[in-house]
Structures are given as structure tokens and as C-alpha cells.
Amino acid sequence: MFMRIWEFRPSAGSEREFERAYGPAGVWATLFRKHAGYLGTDLLRNVSTPGQYLTIDRFTSAEAFQTFKLRYADEYDRLDRECEALTAHERAIGDFTVIA
Question: Whole domain around residue 42: which residue ranges?
Fold first, then answer.
């Protein structure tokens, strides 16, 4: 399994809209579901640091994720622009695989 993990801080006042867009039933997950290699998304809110969130997007493999990114590049870029106002900060933490 392949996972891409992001850190976010929503824009002030946009927290609920951010949660809807980036959660497992949101617009990002809807786009990811177009690819057969997509397994799911988790949205985590830090209980110790208000306003900090992580997303974990799971695909069957790194190759499946890369195929998704190539096939849906235009839609991905458009959605990224549309959701830009929802976030004050975003950072790609990294790409991970399960080892055990």
C-alpha cells in the first residue's frame, strides 16, 4: 500500500468547509475514486495543536498513484486551485509504504 500524507492549516473561518472538502466523502476523495487503485482517505485533526490537520490518501501502489496523477492532472490542478482559499498552509509530508 502507498500513502501520500499532507499537513494543512485551514484558513480562519474555513475549518468546516475544509473538513468537508478534504474528508473521506469530500471533493478530493471523489476525484481519487475515479482511479481503481484508490483505497481511501483519512482526515486527522490534531487534538493538541488546534487548526492542524493531516490527510492520508491511500492507493494500492506508488505506480497506481502516479497513473492517477497523469490521467487526472487537469482535474487535480483545477481542484487544487478551487480549494486554495480553504488553506492558510499546506505541506507535503511525504510518500509512505507499509512495511509490516
Answer: 2-95
To the nearest 10 degrees (0 to 180), the angle between helices 73-83 and 62-71 is 80
Q: Is the pTM of this model over 0.85?
A: yes
Asked if 38 and 32 touch (Cβ cutoff 8 Å), the reply is yes
- Torsion angles phi and psi, residue 75, rounded to 5: -65, -40
Check residue 14 and report its DSSP letter: -
Interval 24-40: pLDDT, tens = 999 999 999 999 999 99
Q: Are 64 and 37 in contact (CB under 8 A)?
A: yes
Residue 100 lies in a domain: no
Report the CATH number at residue 12. Answer: 3.30.70.100
